């Protein structure tokens, strides 16, 4: 019986040539040796240090900037306190952090988006940092108020900042000067940016280049280009979409409605189809933004709403706009006034629709959080605190061409920054009219609903009042449901 | 069962065990758990709390759910028949014995090998309203205002349907394989009866390859209902104004952006039931139009 059962095995071996057996056995031995003695993920890590895993979203130049900061930490404070930060660059950082946290193996530090901060905190997925921040002397006096407030939820500090931004207006000074006579003819100054929404509309109208057939060759301004902050337009109209006290959405607030009416006015003036064709052709929204085809860089759109990082993109993708032949020619030691004269663009606060309300802006930021379940909380915060040191923060923000979240900035930071208009962004960050992302636990849903409403409005599919009312009803129901479930869990 | 049979059974199972364990842990268990999660309030970050059919009730009254369902249904109604018919026509043409037949077959099949992201990038440029080759061609043909394609809520879904035809190569290959099995004597008999080319296709070819058509139909139903990658890359969040917000995109958003894994699981189960129902209908009707040789 036994010999019958093994008979097929014997038959197989009989037909195999010795050479094949030698090759197969050699490969098997090589595989086993590789498994036993091959490279290990942690073999290069210092044995005498606590290893901190830091997951971050950046790639390219921005990754180089943060890697530099990580290296500085490992060389200095890390070496002194026996901590080593292992940097991992990853896409969809929120998703990866979510999965790892759910699985109980989160990174020690994660660089979440600001609109995920309250969402994660409300699900009890982040460590509160209040005590650790106090121990390191980081408090309200360290940070610009808008960012300090943005890092809090429900009375607790849940993050500090890696790099922040403020959203301003970039405008093409060359096109302004080429059209100086036409601008002056309608009483506009070609040597400065518009200072009110009415003025912005007037500048845009003059700078539009529309053919007799209605096709747009150049747009003075387009709310949908790039359209990243279209859902935040209410901030420049003095409105708010959320009342924290009553926990109610206020999308039908007349100021919010007016903001979206203004967005729609561009579709009506330029024509929905012509605008679509133009945007579809030049749009930098999704694929062309970080490329020489960015419509601001091709002079297809004269004024845009953007963050301070745009200076980096201008330098890298169209150095001619900076008066240079290549990005390598950039000399940050050149006097600021001289640099500003050389470049063919400028930045200014995006105009406010409310008379007397100056320097209104949206202030987004990149967070540094410690997910729940992290094994080295104290050591993780050492790294976060290091990044928030003035010298480190300035170096990092300069590398990213962004403003600083800290109240104190050095003169050198302002004089020799990659963005020659960084003072504009710093001023906006310090403004009492600056707003960070609304602190709503269902913020990703709010963003999607508002985006959809904004698109329907811009495409003339819906009246602003109707689209916003519908979105408000849906969002309020979702928020109430979320909070009811949260209460049921006794959170 | 004899001792030998038992021993052989154990040996067979032992050899199968890597797949069996993998299937049980990575497929069967998640399927079972997803059904349980569909009955729970579950964010991934917290313990699931049983809530009965609440997720299903919420979805039934959610206009975005129905919007995503409509978008997917429209896409399926347009893409499924057009893809099936085009693939069949191409297969019939490629089956004609002409010089360079294998080259033509390769050309038709090649596009289906292009990775989804590369495909999306190619079509984003082709659909560029100002600089794209499609509108350039239309302008040469005298169309003064060609569509805005992906930026136009009216044209964005048809644009995705048109693009889906790019990948018919796989279906064409399966049809071609089926066409090789059509008995030549049937064509000879049809010729003797005076049938022309179209009559031969209608009365001989199509009935003979009906099992292949049926197979392609089932695969196409599953593929169109699960449409995700290309719209996810090309029209994020279903832009413009949710005109291309597919069912699976909303499922993904619910589960991974809004952290409503319970609702996402419920959507997955609804999708499974829809696919099962459509497949069931296809099987039920197949008795009337699918012919198996020898039966």
Distance between the termini of chain B: 35 Å
Radius of gyration of chain B: 24 Å
Which CATH C-level class of the largest domain in chain A is it?
A: Alpha Beta
Q: Strand order of the main beta sheet of chain B, please?
A: 1-2
Structural class designation of chain A:
alpha/beta
What fraction of residues of chain B sit in β-strands?
A: under 5%
Tell me the span between the first and last alpha carbons of chain A: 67 Å
Architecture overview:
The complex is a heterodimer of chains A (491) and B (295). By secondary structure, chain A is an alpha/beta fold. Chain A has 2 domains: 50-164 and 365-435, Periplasmic binding protein-like II (D-Maltodextrin-Binding Protein, domain 2); 168-362 and 439-483, D-Maltodextrin-Binding Protein, domain 2, CATH 3.40.190. Chain A has 21 helices and 16 strands. In chain A, helix 3 (60-75) packs antiparallel against helix 17 and helix 20 packs antiparallel against helix 21. Chain B is mainly α. Chain B is 69% helix and 1% strand. Chain B is built from 14 helices and 2 strands. In chain B, helix 11 packs antiparallel against helix 14 (261-289). Classes of the chains: A alpha/beta (491), B mainly alpha (295). The A-B interface holds A 1, 4-5, 95, 98-99, 101-102, 119-120, 123-125, 213, 273, 276-283, 286-287, 442, 444-445, 448, 451-452, 455-456, 459, 461, 474, 481, 485, 488-489 and B 3-4, 7-8, 41, 43-46, 49, 58, 63-64, 121, 124, 127-131, 144-145, 148-153, 236-242, 253, 256-259.
């Amino acid at each position: 019986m036994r010999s019958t059962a093994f008979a097929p095995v014997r038959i197989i071996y009989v037909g195999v040539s010795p050479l094949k057996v030698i090759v197969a056995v050699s490969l098997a031995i090589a595989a086993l040796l590789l498994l036993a003695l091959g490279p290990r993920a942690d073999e290069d890590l210092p044995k005498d240090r606590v290893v901190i895993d830091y997951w971050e979203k950046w790639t390219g130049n921005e990754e180089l900037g943060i890697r530099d900061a990580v290296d500085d930490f490992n060389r200095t404070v890390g070496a002194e306190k026996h901590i080593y930060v292992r940097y991992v660059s990853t896409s969809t950082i929120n998703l990866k952090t979510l999965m790892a946290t759910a699985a109980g193996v989160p990174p020690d530090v994660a660089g979440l988006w600001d609109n995920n901060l309250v969402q994660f905190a409300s699900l009890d997925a982040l460590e509160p940092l209040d005590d650790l921040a106090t121990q390191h002397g980081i408090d309200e006096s360290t940070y610009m108020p808008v960012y300090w407030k943005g890092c809090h939820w429900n009375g607790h500090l849940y993050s500090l900042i890696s790099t922040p931004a403020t959203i301003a207006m970039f405008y093409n000074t060359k096109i302004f000067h080429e059209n100086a006579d036409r601008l002056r003819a309608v009483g506009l100054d070609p040597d400065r940016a518009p200072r009110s929404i009415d003025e912005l509309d007037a500048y845009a109208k003059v700078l539009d280049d529309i053919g007799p057939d209605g096709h747009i060759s150049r747009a003075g301004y387009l709310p949908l280009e790039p359209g990243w902050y279209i859902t935040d337009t209410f901030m420049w109209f003095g409105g708010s979409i959320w009342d924290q006290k009553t926990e109610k959405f206020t999308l039908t607030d007349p100021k919010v409605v007016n903001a979206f009416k203004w967005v729609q006015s561009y579709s009506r003036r330029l024509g929905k189809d012509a605008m679509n064709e133009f945007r579809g052709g030049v749009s930098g929204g999704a694929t062309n933004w970080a490329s020489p085809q960015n419509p601001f860089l091709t002079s297809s759109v004269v004024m845009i709403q953007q963050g301070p990082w745009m200076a980096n993109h201008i330098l890298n993708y169209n150095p001619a706009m900076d008066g240079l032949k290549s990005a390598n020619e950039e000399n940050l030691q050149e006097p600021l006034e001289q640099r500003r004269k050389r470049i063919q663009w400028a930045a200014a606060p995006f105009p406010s629709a409310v008379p007397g309300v100056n320097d209104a802006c949206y202030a987004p930021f990149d967070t540094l959080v410690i997910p729940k379940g992290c094994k080295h909380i104290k050591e993780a915060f050492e790294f976060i605190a290091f990044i928030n040191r003035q010298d480190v923060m300035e170096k990092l923000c300069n590398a990213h061409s962004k403003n600083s979240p800290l109240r104190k900035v050095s003169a050198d930071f302002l004089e020799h920054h990659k963005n020659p208009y960084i003072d504009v962004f710093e001023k906006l960050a310090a403004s009492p009219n600056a707003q960070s992302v609304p602190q709503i636990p269902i913020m990703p849903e709010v963003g999607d609903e508002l985006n959809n409403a904004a698109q329907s409005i811009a495409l003339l599919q819906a009246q602003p009042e109707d689209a916003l009312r519908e979105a408000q009803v849906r969002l309020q129901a979702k928020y109430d449901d979320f909070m009811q479930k949260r209460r049921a869990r006794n959170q | 069962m004899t001792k030998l049979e038992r021993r052989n059974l154990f040996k067979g199972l032992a050899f199968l065990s890597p797949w069996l364990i993998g299937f049980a842990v990575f497929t069967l268990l998640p399927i079972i758990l997803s059904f349980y999660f569909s009955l729970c309030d579950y964010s991934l970050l917290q313990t699931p709390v049983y809530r009965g059919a609440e997720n299903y009730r919420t979805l039934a009254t959610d206009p975005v759910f129905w919007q995503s369902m409509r978008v997917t249904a429209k896409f399926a109604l347009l893409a499924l028949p057009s893809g099936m018919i085009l693939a069949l026509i191409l297969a019939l043409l490629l089956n004609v014995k002409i010089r360079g037949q294998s080259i033509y077959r390769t050309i038709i099949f090649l596009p289906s090998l292009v990775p989804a992201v590369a495909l999306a990038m190619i079509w984003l440029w082709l659909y560029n309203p100002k600089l794209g080759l499609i509108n350039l061609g239309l302008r040469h043909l005298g169309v003064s205002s060609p569509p805005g394609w992906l930026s136009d809520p009216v044209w964005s879904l048809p644009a995705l349907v048109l693009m889906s035809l790019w990948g018919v190569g796989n279906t064409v290959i399966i049809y071609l394989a089926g066409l090789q099995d059509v008995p030549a004597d049937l064509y000879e008999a049809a010729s003797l009866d005076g049938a022309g080319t179209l009559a031969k296709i209608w009365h001989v070819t199509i009935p003979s390859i009906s099992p292949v058509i049926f197979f392609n139909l089932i695969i196409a139903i599953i593929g169109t209902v699960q449409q995700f990658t290309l719209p996810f890359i090309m029209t994020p969040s279903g832009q413009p104004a949710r005109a291309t917000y597919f069912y699976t995109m909303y499922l993904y958003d619910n589960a991974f952006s809004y952290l409503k894994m319970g609702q996402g699981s419920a959507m997955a189960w609804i999708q499974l039931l829809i696919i099962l129902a459509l497949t069931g209908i296809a099987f039920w009707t197949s008795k009337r139009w699918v012919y198996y040789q020898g039966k």
